[in-house]
Amino acid sequence: MSTDQLRIGVIGCGAGIFHLEGYAEEPRVKVVALAGLDTDRCQALAKRFDIPAIYSDYQELLAQDDIDAVSIAVPNNLHKPVVIAALASGKHVLIEKPLARHEDEAREMVEAAKRYGKILAVAFQRRTRHDIEIVRDEIAAGNFGRVYYAKAFWMRRSGIPGLGSWFTSKEAAGGGPLIDLGVHVLDMALYVLGNPKVTSVSAATYAEIGPQGRGNWPGRRQSFAPGGPNGYEVEDLATAFLRFGDGGTLLLEASWASFTEMGDDFGIQVYGGNGGARIFAKNYAHVDTLEIYRNIGDTTADSKPRLIERPGHARIIQGFVDGILNGTPVSPDGEEGLDRVRLIDAIYKSAELGREITVE
Ligand SMILES: NC(=O)c1ccc[n+]([C@@H]2O[C@H](COP(=O)([O-])OP(=O)(O)OC[C@H]3O[C@@H](n4cnc5c(N)ncnc54)[C@H](O)[C@@H]3O)[C@@H](O)[C@H]2O)c1
């Protein structure tokens, strides 16, 4: 490993930009190589972030043995092969969410990280939000009493991220808004609740708008579809009810396209015996998103804490670099990524069977 600055490679030039922005804020690293099939987009990024080497084939980037770590932001079906190849080439890995399409793939990835003795971190950057951290800390401190119910949602009016692209291919993406957006809010909800054990899931999925060729995110990803078939093969709305071992429950909703208020909004609400909170992020808002509900004496004393906007990927990257350089535990790691994929699998399974299923 280089001693002064870590040398980083980034694979994928879409969400890869969030990683490049994050690394640009981290003085302990230098991004030295970028890989992606979409040459124009990659060249523009290489120019903007002053990256000396660009490859189309990710294997060429991995063959560069002076690279210490890579960020990977490629379509979901490539997560497993690219991550395992990166670990095998001796690199630490920060992979985009979801860790994988299915539990078996995720498990192989976690095992590979152990086998090669490298860090596997997952970019659930939204859990680093200020509002999320506040609610998590309040619950952990017992300030809401027993939290027995929670709701988590991410709903878009018209936000299919590319009709006919890899996102709407079951094979390439592994699923629709549940695995794309739902996995973020599921992660945030379980994180604020202190990772309660899920014991059962009852779910349903619907594909009502996408198959009509409607509900696309205006102007997004129509021109680039790496190998994706043109059909609409995934859900456009998923809803799930999860039971926890402690008797608590969580209601989850995720949609790319639905006739609802115009927006691209997510939120978490928690209900405790002694207090509660609601986070509502309208169009990715970071401030004015949190309300805390409590009583003082026999009256209500609700509050709206002042929040700061935090760059999510930069904070995940800071933890990733700390893990590599100082051996501090990385969070979220591959195990947490695997846990979320396992639950996503269970949700799809319950929807397919049309009944509640037990989660081991
Ligand atoms: N954390 C977040 O908030 C967030 C946001 C957006 C996307 N993502 C995740 O990032 C991943 C990528 O999504 P996206 O929106 O960037 O998709 P995209 O289609 O915009 O970009 C995919 C990138 O992967 C590259 N690629 C594909 N096959 C490749 C190969 N064989 N070798 C090298 N590069 C290859 C493409 O050239 C492209 O640059 C997905 O897993 C998605 O879930 C996460």
Automatic annotation (TrEMBL):
Enzyme Commission number(s) of this protein: 1.1.1.18
Q: Which domain of life is it from?
A: Bacteria
Query: Which of UniProt's keywords are assigned here?
Result: Oxidoreductase
Looking up InterPro entries in the UniProt record yields: Gfo/Idh/MocA-like_OxRdtase_N, Gfo/Idh/MocA_Oxidoreductase, GFO_IDH_MocA-like_dom, NAD(P)-bd_dom_sf
What top-level class of enzyme does the UniProt entry assign?
oxidoreductase
SUPFAM superfamilies associated with the record: Glyceraldehyde-3-phosphate dehydrogenase-like, C-terminal domain, NAD(P)-binding Rossmann-fold domains
Transmembrane region(s): none
Spell out the molecular function terms from Gene Ontology. inositol 2-dehydrogenase (NAD+) activity; nucleotide binding
Domain GFO/IDH/MocA-like oxidoreductase, residue spans: 135-277
Domain (Gfo/Idh/MocA-like oxidoreductase N-terminal) spans 6-124
Q: What is this protein called?
A: GH109
